[in-house]
């Protein structure tokens, strides 16, 4: 089968397509023929060798994917060939024509959801759900600020919050991105490239500030976030690319909290709980992953460059 291999840590150029053996499922395992694989910023960090999770070389990247069950190992009764599924990880990576996974890493993909959309479920929606509801305990009626709301995690957060009855302020850096955020359910959309754009938060909230802030780029925004946080507000740091300086008094006066998260820290029980909630939204149509671009598997290096560029628009997926 064709797969992307990383033989040494480095830039996007280390992503090379290769011919490798198709794995065979052992006890409790499932082989999935992939129709699409999701590309996440975390994939790029791992590729450099600087991420919290450092795989042994060589390895095939990718945690997200969707496809059709090809075969199952012994002791697997929940899945059968031709089942439509999406993955929450794998024994092997998803940047490939086939992926080997534990049976527990698969979830049913509703017929109304395309394979490309299915490749954008796991990291974006599970991250957004965990940040919003497990960590920040976001409640109906509260005001949510989502930085970078036009990307994969951002659109997921807006959809989830809209379904739960929050008031949403989203930011994006392009007209196209801002229109997308509005379409997903945000009541207000700001241009985060405009000087002083956060000054509008107090006006939009009647002087109160945001109860919950989902932060995708903490090294740029965290200090300013604390100045527009409501009393007892919560900032959840989802993404960060460097050091940041803050004034703790901005947090102290509000009795606020800064919460950090990495999806890999969620327990298996937590993942199953999130999957149940996300699955219900996929079934009833309140959650609809946005695919911004589909690229051939061989263009994985291009995908890694583009997923880190400004102006995010939905999810980038690779098609084997």
Describe this structure in words.
With 320 residues, this protein is α/β, with parallel strands linked by helices. The protein has 2 domains: 2-121 and 289-319, Quinone Oxidoreductase, Chain A, domain 1; 125-264, NAD(P)-binding Rossmann-like Domain (Rossmann fold, 3-Layer(aba) Sandwich), CATH 3.40.50. It has helices at 41-48, 115-118, 122-135, 152-164, 175-184, 199-204, 218-225, 248-252, 268-284, 300-306; strands at residues 2-6, 15-19, 29-39, 64-72, 84-88, 98-102, 106-108, 143-146, 167-172, 188-191, 210-215, 229-237, 257-260, 291-296, 315-319. Strands 3, 4, 5, 6, 7, 14 and 15 form a 7-stranded mixed sheet that branches. Helix 3 (122-135) crosses helix 4 and helix 3 (122-135) packs across helix 9. The mean pLDDT is 97.
SSE map:
Layout: E1 2-6, E2 15-19, E3 29-39, H1 41-48, E4 64-72, E5 84-88, E6 98-102, E7 106-108, H2 115-118, H3 122-135, E8 143-146, H4 152-164, E9 167-172, H5 175-184, E10 188-191, H6 199-204, E11 210-215, H7 218-225, E12 229-237, H8 248-252, E13 257-260, H9 268-284, E14 291-296, H10 300-306, E15 315-319
Helix pairs in contact: 3-4, 3-9
